Amino acid sequence: MLKELIIAFQSYVKAHHFITTHKLWKWIIIPGILYTILFVIGIYFFWVSAATVVAAFSHLVHIDRFLQHRQSSLLSFLFLMGGLMVHLVLVFLYFSLFKYLILIIGSPLFTYLSEQTDALLNGKEYTMQFNREFRQDMLVGIRLALRNSGWQTVYLIFLLILSFVPIVGWITPVICIFVECYYYGFSMLDYSCRRHQMSPSASVEYISQRKGLAIGNGMIFYGLHFIPVLAPAYAVIAATISLYHQNLE
Question: What is the value of pTM for the model shown?
């Protein structure tokens, strides 16, 4: 897995050179600005709504009254950390749903970028054609995004429940990050699998055997949210490059 992680990280560097060399910035900046606006608005409401949920639950079960009665610094610290963990897991849950919404809306762009990247890597010229095959790839991608969204939601709900457990629940945000990274990287790698006519089940099996590529792609994607305008397009191009030398037949 370590080797796959390194390949995934290096692919982002190659993606930057690739975008610069082939002057693909118009496919990066304009959609990236829209993504950034949606991300900033979304993360604000995610954070506020998660805080509201935690506060409402605390009030419902009378945690504040319990802590005032006990007057224990240790208990106050444990409940404070527990509330923070629940808050973070809720934000990850909200963001995962936002991410899949972006994947569905941006499916035509991501499909095009993957096709264009593969064509340029092979020295070919690619012209976008909204034909039956292209539409079919989009629909398969949307179905897979919905499938991944369902499974990831199940895992995150389990982690949300686990986050209520003192001390043990403190590791849940870390696990959430890895789950998020894997499923986002999975979606980016799937564009290359579909281009090689893999069935959804074959794509799932292929990528599950290369978890390092998926996790690595997703990790850099999350890091790029310091410059969110670059995040989604760089991720799909880097994923295509990372699988370029793989045997997809």
Answer: 0.79
Which residues have C-beta within 8 Å of that of residue 37, sequence separation ≥ 6?
none
Q: Are 219 and 11 in contact (CB under 8 A)?
A: no
Can you tell me the distance from the alpha carbon of 147 to that of 140, in angstroms, rounded to the nearest whole number? Answer: 10
Q: Where are the alpha helices (DSSP H) in the chain?
A: 2-21, 26-60, 63-70, 73-105, 107-121, 132-162, 172-195, 200-208, 211-223, 231-242
In tens, the pLDDT along 98-144 reads 878 887 887 778 888 888 888 888 777 655 555 666 667 677 777 77
For 26, phi and psi rounded to 5 degrees? -65, -25
Rg (CA), the chain: 20
pLDDT in tens, 169-217: 788 888 888 888 898 888 888 888 877 777 777 878 888 888 888 999 9
Exposed / middle / buried, residue 215 (Cβ in 10 Å: 0-12, 13-18, 19+): buried
| pLDDT number for residue 188 | 85
For residue range 223-238, list pLDDT tens digits in order. Answer: 888 888 888 889 989 9
| Closest by CA position to 104, among listed 151, 148, 141, 153 | 141
Length of the chain: 249
Which of 113, 119, 111 is closest to 141 using CA atoms? Answer: 111
Written as one string, the DSSP assignment of 95-132 is HHHHHHHHHHHTHHHHHHHHHHHHHHHTT--------H
